[in-house]
């Protein structure tokens, strides 16, 4: 069997049926039936070996990641996932790799009830493109440009864990199966949380390149500035333990691959937010407030702290 037969076996045969998929994998195009009146949110992301994940990354983790990064984009719009397509570029001689890749892909697809409706398979350097379609109520999508002045800025979970996990992979401070390494290899897209922020958040972005730089994008799109408290940043205790507080802060501000959500909430909706977030295992933290002007300033113990604007560089320095 070659990879292409395996695609049939591992993808076409394992596709989870959904009622709104009239025709899935197998024809020239898929046919889907969007709910009447719903709006569709569409996102696509490519991950390339050597740029977005180190070569030698477990196939299962690549299968997870290619879908996770896309689900995170939908979550950041407050959209719930429906369907996706998968374009695979595979080097020669990778049949086992495909099976493990499929396991990672399907575990996450099943968790979020997303149907794979088509794709493409070619020979070439290892890279994976997923396109997802998600549903959002009319005019309910949460965009980057909706933040107003004097609104609270929140982040889900803790940032910096994935970057610390990647650092651990490279400096050998942890073995496979380590919790931080898993945070890098198997990011959990905040789908439920993002959808739950409809009518609460005024603007939202997912943190893929680093909290500082991604929040900067949200602020710029919204035409506001922000004042943030370093002390209120949610740090992962195991990152602090392994790398110390200063490095943990650096990971939290500039590390990438977190896939947490960063969003703004007006004072009148903060009670609703706390109620909504009470059941979220990841938790939320208020890290500062928007203000008139532009740019973001970090404050620590009442004093300004330069966060730098370096943002996240992919581990080889590539763009992405
Ligand atoms: P065509 O030449 O008509 O594009 P392909 O041989 O590329 O046909 O694909 C045949 C069917 O298999 C199509 O329905 C396509 O969507 C699906 N397909 C191909 N590769 C993948 C993949 N990696 N994942 C999911 N579906 C795929
Ligand atoms: Mg084709």
**Number of DSSP-assigned strands:** 13
Bound ligands: adenosine-5'-diphosphate, magnesium ion
Structural class call reads: alpha+beta
Shape type = globular
Q: How many whole angstroms does the radius of gyration measure?
A: 20 Å
Q: How would a textbook summarize the main sheet?
A: 7 strands, mixed
Name the average pLDDT.
93
Q: Count of helices?
A: 10
Q: How far apart are the first and last residues' alpha carbons, in Å?
A: 34 Å
The sequence of SSEs as H and E is HEEEHEHEEEHHHEHEHHEHEEE
**Major sheet: arrangement of strands:** 8-10-7-11-9-12-13
- Residue share in helix: 25-40%
Q: Catalogue the unreliable spans.
A: 309-320
Percentage of residues in DSSP E strands: 25-35%
